[in-house]
Structures are given as structure tokens and as C-alpha cells.
């Protein structure tokens, strides 16, 4: 999702100032498999979002995520653990080089341990954001849609 183009979903539940929105995966995502690590055959995702536009059950809504938040989340989720892994491998290989044990294996183990700490840190940061009711890295309801064009129809119009 980008700043100018959101995704359209349907409100399926409303509770305590929040709505659950069911979104069909975008046509560009059909073969990606990143959602649920490619294990899910479900073609829809659901999001629980603050009902800032007073949407009701059955309404079609546009949700969007700021482009800068997508980049920041990607860096946080992918680059931080990768850097931790590489740092752990380099540090572990150099630190354990004086021992009479294979430094490559110890470097690999150090990398895995440091990467695990990075994932734990990311998880703690995520929980902290949730506790403060932060909207960072969370799609936002933008508007209620009256005329809906499906992704497949939209793709045909682009051709």
C-alpha cells in the first residue's frame, strides 16, 4: 500500500471504537507468499483498526499505510536481524579464534544468538507500540467507499 493508493476492504466487525476490516490481498501479492510464510491459502487478511471515520459493518473502506512507515518497518524487520546475525558471526569468529574449537561454528552460533536477541528486541518494541496505542506501522482507515472496483477489474483497466 502506498500513500496515494490504498486497499479496499469490508468492515466485518465493530467493537469499542475499533473495526475489523477484511481485505482481499492485492493482485500484486498473489504469488508472493510472504503473508503467513506462504502457508495460508486464505486470500484475505484482517486488520483491527481504530474507527476514525465512523464506519459501520458492511461498509467498504479504504485503508492505507504511509510509505515511510513501510520502509521503516521493513528495515526493522529485515535489516536489524540480518545485521545482528552478521555482527555475531564476525564477532564470534574473531573472539573465539584463540580457542581450540572451530571458530566458524562458534561464529555461527554467536550470530544466531545475537539475531535472536534482535528479534526479542523487535518484539518488545512492538509490544511497547501496542501499549501506547500507537498508529506507527499500522494501516489507517482513510475513507468510506461508495463505488468499488475490484483489483482484477482495476488491473484490466491499466492494460
TrEMBL record:
<dbReference type="InterPro" id="IPR026268">
    <property type="entry name" value="RseC"/>
</dbReference>
<feature type="transmembrane region" description="Helical">
    <location>
        <begin position="105"/>
        <end position="125"/>
    </location>
</feature>
<keyword id="KW-0472">Membrane</keyword>
<dbReference type="InterPro" id="IPR007359">
    <property type="entry name" value="SigmaE_reg_RseC_MucC"/>
</dbReference>
<protein>
    <recommendedName>
        <fullName>Fis family transcriptional regulator</fullName>
    </recommendedName>
</protein>
<feature type="transmembrane region" description="Helical">
    <location>
        <begin position="70"/>
        <end position="93"/>
    </location>
</feature>
<keyword id="KW-1133">Transmembrane helix</keyword>
<dbReference type="Pfam" id="PF04246">
    <property type="entry name" value="RseC_MucC"/>
</dbReference>
<keyword id="KW-0812">Transmembrane</keyword>
